[in-house]
Every structure is written in structure tokens, then in C-alpha cells.
Amino acid sequence: MPTLAGHEFDLGLLGHRCWLELATGERIELPVERWTEPSEGDDVLLDACSGPTIDLGCGPGRLTAALAGRGVVALGVDSSRTAVRLTRHRGGSALHRNVFDRLPGEGRWRHALLADGNIGIGGDPAALLRRTARLIAPDGDVLVELEPPGHGLRHERVRLRPGHADVAWFTWAWVGVDAIAEVAVRAGLRVDWTTRHGHRWFARLERR
């Protein structure tokens, strides 16, 4: 999970239980165990990366480091300094930066990863995919993890818990596998394939 700056997110990176609280009062648990340890389904993403890969919202770096261990050039990007430190500790390369800021190798990456719900960064998946499309080479792709069918496209105001009473609200989004084709088109991309592994769903997007 990405790019939720602040002390509360850092606690999740370190394995402490945390969740998103929606303005409606709904609570969505965050899979902090999956952020830190290899997870069933990771190989769907790892096996699809045959060349230089940028991992957006890399968190503690399990995918970035796993790719490096396979001999694939990989760079993690995260707005949390703790995430960057943990990624480097695993042996991966990482950069402390917002994904919407200027990044190394723009337009030359073979693959871009948006795993663990990172399609929600910024609360506007089409805008995020347009940004991501500018990072990849003309024949590159974006590998995205999605919600199961039936979830559609959802935007909500959320805040990270537990935390102080005045912790900031921000917009997050969720994209179901049934909604990714429409979102991709709005970003100038198209769906090449979708697949499921256990309870996790993935898609490969390429330029139209």
C-alpha cells in the first residue's frame, strides 16, 4: 500500500494493525502482513516483469527486492521515508518521492507496478494511470492489482487509523476488475489480460 504519508502509515509498514476509516463510518482493514512478507499471487506480477521495472508505492519493498533478487533492474518509489529505508534494507533500490513528481527514466521503463491497492493513490485512477503511462516505454506495460469483480469504481474520503483525532482525511479509490477497461481507456491504455490467483486479481495494461 502506498503513499499514505504520516506516522500511522509507518506503523503499518512496521507490521502494526491499521485500517482505513471512511466518512461513512465503514472500516477497511489494511493487509499489513502482505506488505512485508511474500504473498500468494506475487509471482503473477514478478513473472510478468522481464525488464526494468518501477514499483510505485513500493511500501517496505517486498516486490522491488524480489525483482532485484531475480536480476531485474527495479526501483521502488514511495512518499514514506520509512518505506524507502525498509526497501533498501531488503536490498532493493528505492526513492523517496511522490509518484506525481519527476522520476528517473521517465518514458523508458519496461514495466510499472501498481500492487496492493496502489491504483487508489490520489483518488483518481484514470489520472494515476495517465501519469504511469508517461513512465513506461512505448512497448511497456502497467501491471495493476484490482478488486474482485462486482466492485466497480469507488472513490471515498478516508483517514488512516489508529491515529490522532485530527489525522488528515484524503481521497482514496478502488477499482474492480469489471471497471478497469473503462478506466484504462480514459488513460489512453487498454487491457491486455486479467487474471486471478487465489483471492487476488491482476491486469496488464498497454498502450492503445
From TrEMBL:
SUPFAM superfamilies: S-adenosyl-L-methionine-dependent methyltransferases (SSF53335). It comes from the Bacteria. InterPro entries: Methyltransf_25, SAM-dependent_MTases_sf. Residues 55-140 form the Methyltransferase domain. The keyword Oxidoreductase does not apply. GO terms for biological process: methylation. Keywords: Methyltransferase, Transferase. Pfam families: Methyltransf_25. GO terms for molecular function: methyltransferase activity. This is Class I SAM-dependent methyltransferase. It comes from Amycolatopsis eburnea.
